[in-house]
Amino acid sequence: MGRRATTAQALLIITLAAWFVARSGFVFSGEYGPSGLTALSGLIAVAAVGGLAATVLVIGARRLSPRANLWALAGQALLAFGPYLLIGEVWGPVAGAVVASVLFTLPHRISWLSAVMVIALDVGLSAVFGRVGADGLALVGRLVIDVLVGANLLGVLLLTDVTRRLTAERAAYAALAVAEERIHNAERMRVTLGADLSSVVRLSRLGLDGEQARARLAEIAVTARRAAHTARSIIDTRRELAGGQTDPDASAFPSTTISPRLAWLFTLATTVNCALLVLVNFAFYVRPSFAGWVLVLLTLAGCAILQMYHGAPQVTGRPPRRWRWTLPLHLVILAVAVALTGPHFAPTITLAAGAALYRWRRPWSFGVLAIVTAELLLVLPSGATVGDHVYLVASLTGALIQAYAYCRLPEVARELAQASAGLARLAVVRERLRVTRDVHDLLGLSITAIGLKCELITRLVDADPVRARHEFRELGTLALRGLADIQAAISGAPELRLAEELRAVCSLLDASGIHAEVAVGAAALPADIDTLLATVVREAVTNVVRHTATATTCKITLTTRDGTARLRVTNDGEPGLAAAGAGTGLVNLRARLAAACGRLSAESDHDGFVLTAYVPLRPAQRGRLHPAGLGRDPDRVDPVPGVELGHR
Fold it and tell me: Which H or E element spans position 554?
């Protein structure tokens, strides 16, 4: 969607550049001749037109405060009307840029009245400073040009604005969807897992003495199994969306839309203005007979109907049925009219070419544009100046973009609104995968340890009551640790410490009857690397306890060399399926290490099964890390960690 916003911005820039070139070319056209133009007047005119184009671009970016917008409009008024005092008849009409800015910036209750006043002022100044003897047709032509340019620039401004706003809103909508998913997960973990672990804490505090001791121990074991089942259901990413909801729907998207009817009205206004401009051209330059006027009016009426049929956005969103026949007919009629009467039909044929640009694919549409441009240049009078040619080509470019923009305006709004639903679903899936990882990696050890401790206590309660009581008290510690892990999984910022994890896994291995050997030969690690390696230790030892058969010894070593930390976890048992690399846990670890520019290897050797994690220590090698080695979300739906959809 960012590419669409960039494309819309490029359309605005191209439109303003085309208008700047066209207006500058008009100053140097044969309209005034060499006697009407001096070096100073030409410089003033080009500078003022450039300033108007620049202020329209700045206003369209919507980065100015309301007060700054008013100052920008005041500056536009000075640029649009001040040159009349300096260069007189050479100037104008350029008030269309001010009209577009006024309609785009000011509140609706005053914008239209202000736009009318701007046009009236421009026409009035043209009458005062124009050439002596210029009739009313020249003033009508300037009025039509102001309206036409204003509608053109306003349409492209709206296209750019709606694309930008929808792009921003889709990110906000996706963030809301993620927040809803996160709230649902938080509620589910607190109500289910949290309740189970809190029950373990309460029961462990009652101790192992008394007649109900074995019953309490059995209840804790049942609670641990229930918590493990709940954790597995949370890890299952195939479940339905949060709260039993259906997929995010585009209709629920809080969109800023442009109605197809509004774009249709803009197209109608442009079509009517172009027809009026053709009439002014004929009245001013040709002065046809009555029969000629009838023919011109019939041609314009038919072409206007055809232009609205296939060159305007459809309210239904569907293309007209027979545009493939009507559009070529439209172009042929106008091409014949241009061949017979000269460039006076240029405004209407350029709109038709814009419709061809929108409807036909390349290279057919480009071929039509080339033919139209060539015909218009060929029918220019023999005395046409370079400025006339520049004005014609630039005007054609602006009209093409205008026709294209009005057709695309509602379509882009509709597409972005629909795409936002897909983005929201993608963000929800990423959040779900993030929770899946953290529940698996963080809670797995605590829940597994509680179950193993219960089995160990059952064996020790008669054989070694003192140790049984000690292990029973540790159940509460494990449950409290699990509650903290739930909070970490909910917040998305697990704060693990390697030293604490090493003590915890040693206790778990001891409860499982596995001898633990730990050797840490590394100095203090960066906080994010320490957290990442703590996660690796937790998952590796959990896999040893859960999935590795006949293991009697587990060795954990940590070393640093050449700016890289190496964590090695070895056990002498036979690896199960998960240990061999097909389980969710090792996939999670590989993703976490990859986010830190590290890697993970898991293989069997003569000592048993070996899991080794490598991660660079220097920030230049690994980039900025988030807790547990998670990266930023590529769609910038903050604060969702970046989880790739391929990770399961």
Answer: strand 553-561
